[in-house]
Amino acid sequence: MSAGEERFVIVGGKPLRGEVRVCGAKNSVLKLMAASLLTPEECVIHNVPHITDVEIMAEVLRHLGAEVGWEDDTIRVRAGEFAGREAPYHLVRRMRASIVVLGPLVARFGEAKVAIPGGCNIGSRKIDMHLRGLAEMGAEISTEHGYVYARASRLRGRHIVLDFPSVGATENLMMAALGAEGTTVIENAAREPEIQDLAAFLVSMGAEIGGAGTPVLEVEGGAELRGTEHTVIGDRIEAGTFAVAAAVTGGDLTITGVRPEHLALPLEKMRAAGVEVQEGEDDLRVRGGGDYRAVDVATLPFPGFPTDMQPQIMVLLSLACGTSVVTENVFESRFMFVDELNRMGCDITIEGHHAIVRGGRKLSGTEVCATDLRAGAALVLAGLAAEGETQVLDIHHIDRGYQRLEEKLSKLGAEIRRVTGD
Ligand code: EPZ
Predict the structure, then answer these.
(1) Is the C-beta atom of 226 inside 6 A of ligand 1?
(2) Fewest Cβ atoms nearer than 10 Å: which of 148, 350, 376, 379?
(3) Buried b (16+ CB within 10 A) or exposed e, 29-46
(4) Measured in angstroms, how far is the CA atom of residue 286 from the centroid of ligand 1?
(5) Cross-strand bridge partners of residue 161
(6) CATH number belonging to domain 6-23+234-420
(7) Residue 166 C-alpha to ligand 1 middle, in angstroms?
(8) pLDDT tens across 259-304, in order?
């Protein structure tokens, strides 16, 4: 292992107990930072998690010429008149969501050059819907040498119908529409809480947006957008990860800083499996222990079961009595981590988009590699439930979306530490 690499060393079998507060949602804050490009005035964003993806997005904004300040959990962005126009490959390759600077740049400056993100370990991550929507609004799109070039002397409001409720396409087109003349309707829009948080941020900047959280978004173009101050919603996927941690360790956790309705289906599925879940206004209590029942899960766009909770729920289902079927409908190859789980004693077979999870397993610790962010989180959960020691390698994937996960888990009674180098 090279000196720079870090891993988690976990000794399983400790029930987690106590209270944990989740951070601001990664999949909202990245887009709010990009939206700050739409105005020369300062945007202040609170409840920002200290995770790698936010660091990279800050680098992207600075590369574009914006001033970015970060103190505690507050980020200040001011994209003055001379912000740049290019998001380079060396940054975009490290964080695909950088593609959401495309819409704001075209809306404000009429041009953008953004590296094509390329695929990752969970799928091809195409951007055809982003580009088709921008072209429908009148942008001239070309792709060459691994970059997308978008130019628009004037964008016009259009009625766009998305093939699929893509989160990123909805966000890019909603922001581009703010620079168009007239009204843009986005049909079959994504409905995730993070989309609603972005719409609220844009409205607080002076935008006129209707239908956020429904399949039909209506965006008025041409408003003068000003600086704003906003607090990011809680991270529902971090909350769901801790909920599964309570279940698989037979623990008792109170998880605060999140609205339970943002993860209604994962909580419903956990109840069906036999986990005790109580919901408050912006907190939830999860109690594990006892025998769990097998349940089938199919991932779908919100309000369906979130694909970002699929690896985590697989760990719980591996402990349940009976066989569960988990169907991945959002990404084409989000089962890569299953081999690592099976090395810990799970018995999961992949058949196309379905994972057949044979439960009743006793997990045992070993060395495993994180293949992506949520897979890494699932391996940590498996290590917490396993007998003996688990070492999770390549934890830089986990640091992309979880702020010091090992510190939060240790405070709840887990035996986990971060080890650097040999
Ligand atoms: C966002 O990714 C999230 N990332 C993902 O979370 C999340 O899994 C995903 O939404 C679905 O909820 C961020 O918000 C930073 P999509 P995004 O566009 O926007 C296909 C995590 O772990 N598609 O809804 O890229 C695409 O290939 C990450 O936090 C096209 O074919 O998701 C995928 O199969 C992982 N053409 C599906 O749609 C397009 O133009 C969903 O993608 C766009 C997407």
Answers:
(1) no
(2) 350
(3) bbbbbbbbbbbbebbbbe
(4) 28
(5) 187
(6) 3.65.10.10
(7) 6
(8) 999 999 999 999 999 999 999 999 999 999 989 999 999 999 999 9
Of ligand 1's listed atoms, the one at least distance from the Cα of 30 is: 15
26, 164, 402: which to mutate for ligand 1, most atoms within 8 A of CB? 164
Handedness of CA 223, 224, 225, 227 (dihedral sign): negative
Strand order in the sheet with 6-11: 367-369, 389-393, 6-11, 415-420
* CATH superfamily assigned to domain 26-231: Enolpyruvate transferase domain (3.65.10.10)
pTM given for the model:
0.97
Set 23, 43, 120, 346: catalytic member:
120
How far apart are the CA of 412 and the centre of ligand 1, in A? 32
Q: Active-site residue 346, yes or no?
A: no
Condensed to tens digits (0 to 9), the pLDDT of residues 361-419 reads 999 999 999 999 999 999 999 999 999 999 999 999 999 999 999 999 999 999 999 99
Q: Binning pLDDT at 50, 70 and 90, where does residue 121 land?
A: confident
Nearest CA to ligand 1 atom 38: 166
Residues 365/345, Cβ–Cβ less than 8 Å: no
Q: 167 alpha carbon to ligand 1 midpoint, in Å?
A: 6
Q: Do domains 6-23+234-420 and 26-231 have the same CATH topology?
A: yes
pLDDT at 87 over 90: no
